[in-house]
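Hi there,

I know you've been waiting on this one. I reran it after we fixed the sequence typo, so this is the corrected version. Both the input and the resulting structure follow.
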Amino acid sequence: MTFRTRFAPSPTGPLHIGHAYSAIMCHDMARAEDGAFLLRMEDTDLQRSKPEWERLIIEDLLWLGLSWDGPVHRQSEHIERYNARLETLADRRLLYPCSCTRSDIRAALTAPQEGVAHQVYPGTCRGRPMSERREGDAIRLDLFAALNLLAGDELAFTESGPAHAGRHLVDADHALRTIGDIVLGRKGDGIVAYFLASAFDDTDQGISHVIRGEDLFDFTPVQVILQHLFGFPTPIYHHHRLIR
């Protein structure tokens, strides 16, 4: 297996020390394995992502002495492709529209942040069909239906990080209690969620190892579930300690 990893910041603010540590970890692990280190901008939040933040992030990475292979991949340039794939889940009746508040929807669309608790959606809109989706509606994954569809699959991932090393099975009941019906997109502005775009890009870019902070460990089952729904391979995960 060729070692391929990526550093994927969101250009919504400056690179902080934790991001810098993660970038160095990704870069050094890739180079140690004579592998590839890619740079991806997770800029699907079109309101908060700014070119000036991307420029400053790149300047900081270069100042740290990091180099990456190939051009910078920007998720904002691939929104149509993400949405086309999202529609395949709608065709399988795994999605429903949600009209809960826009602030809740926006928070659900962004990448998880350290120290911010994930709130499980109570399923208020779960009975709505996709034919009733309106402008501004969030598009949620019916996790119960998705897990039923995947009942015959072994949902698992391999972790190489120091705190959780080993093989981990995704427990369906635990996922329903702690993850719930996540937001995958929003009708009207074409925005897709971090989880969805990340799963697509990791596959399309041939990522073999996902290296990131241990605060994201609990969200790994979400990506494993999405990988299985689309028939994608599951990379090896490495969650490193946090720098505060």
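Quick highlight: The domain at 4-240 is CATH 3.40.50.620 (Rossmann fold).

Best,
R. S.
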